[in-house]
Amino acid sequence: MFESLSERLDSAFKLLKGEGRISEINVASTVKEIRRALVDADVNYKIAKEFTDRVKDKALGEKVITAISPSQLMVKIVKDELADLMGGTAAELELKANPTIILIAGLQGSGKTTFSGKLANFLKSKGKKPLLVAADIYRPAAIDQLKVLGGQIEVPVYSEPENKNAVQITENALREAKQNNNNVIIIDTAGRLAVDEAMMAEVANIRKAVQPQEILFVVDSMTGQDAVNTAKAFNDRLDFTGVVLTKLDGDTRGGAALTIKYTVEKPIKFVSMGEKLDTLDVFYPERMAQRILGMGDITTLVERAQAQFNEEQAKKLEKKIRQNQFDFDDFREQLQQIKKMGNLKDLMGMIPGVGKAIKDIDISDDAFKGIEAMIGSMTPQERGNPDIIDGSRRKRIAKGAGKEIQDVNQFMKQFEQMRQMMKMMNKMGAGGKGLKALGR
Hints:
Blueprint: H1 3-14, H2 24-40, H3 45-60, H4 70-85, E1 100-105, H5 112-125, E2 130-135, H6 142-153, E3 157-158, H7 166-179, E4 184-189, H8 197-210, E5 214-220, H9 225-238, E6 242-246, H10 255-264, E7 268-272, E8 280-282, H11 285-292, H12 298-308, H13 311-322, H14 328-340, H15 344-349, H16 354-357, H17 369-376, H18 380-384, H19 391-401, H20 405-428, H21 433-439
Parallel strand pairs: 1-4, 1-5, 2-3, 2-4, 5-6, 6-7
Antiparallel strand pairs: 7-8
Helix pairs in contact: 1-2, 2-3, 3-4, 4-11, 5-6, 7-8, 9-10, 17-19, 19-20, 20-21
């Protein structure tokens, strides 16, 4: 995500490295490269020009203090301007009404149905009781897809497969939700391959009939500037309340994410990556600006971790580490929690400085499979007491996992090094301080 843009911006900032002060000449050359980088990322030239003009004005109006170099100052100015361009602050869903009605709109193939499932899962985790409504009466698999998604997250799906009146379906769903005390209704509407009058009229009629509190326009970020133009067409007709960017993990240049807020004057509320139903993030403009500039996103990383690791688990783990009893069962449990947090390369990219280092490395989500296979080949006794695993046991584990003995030896060595580090942190703890530092 944004790899090409990040590289180009980094190259632009390097033009200021070694400079002792900000001047019109060195700022002009840097700003020119920034503008080129934005245009190459599919940002409209007019928007890119306005953006870089603001950056230039701010840079020339700043005095560089001794502790900050001109390049560092330019990075900060660009980060602030990028965040403002994308909305400045996060925009929350309006959920005060009971039931809250959320209408999902967008073109076919943008990921509306998958997003509807993700949103239901997200709101369920926040204590809401959602109902999914299958109002796409044209795409044959749409109803079945929504039912599968609903089944995976244990959220009910309202559908009328024989009814070809989408407005009537949504009105009936509203009555159903009130009877079953569902306090959020998520309506998955039909899309087309391109904007057409029939689609617009139908979704406008649904909006008029049910009066939703939120209308979210789902857009495939991989379509670049076309996504911005489509958003404008939808907004002119629907006056939606927010945008959802999907497929941000794809080969996208980022133009839609950067300029859609500027163009339609509606906030980006969510970003979605992948097919897994827990890969939905609230959109924070400043965090996204930091990631584009290679600064990482520790806050989102911590939030994802907190969503997977509960306090009771953390206390049990801390107790085992204190008693030097961390074993392979604990290790496997931690791997499972990390996998639930999302794409591994994306997670590592949230750590400041790591994104650039791994940009050319292919990190598969199956990276843990070999380790899990080795742990799975151990007996319960071996998993609970790693010290008993001798040479003959290692041979058996290697054979059972389909690995070489060297792989098992290396894994055992790494695991022991990790245990030694934990033991050292425990000794340094002084009332648990060391363990808390390790946890961080």
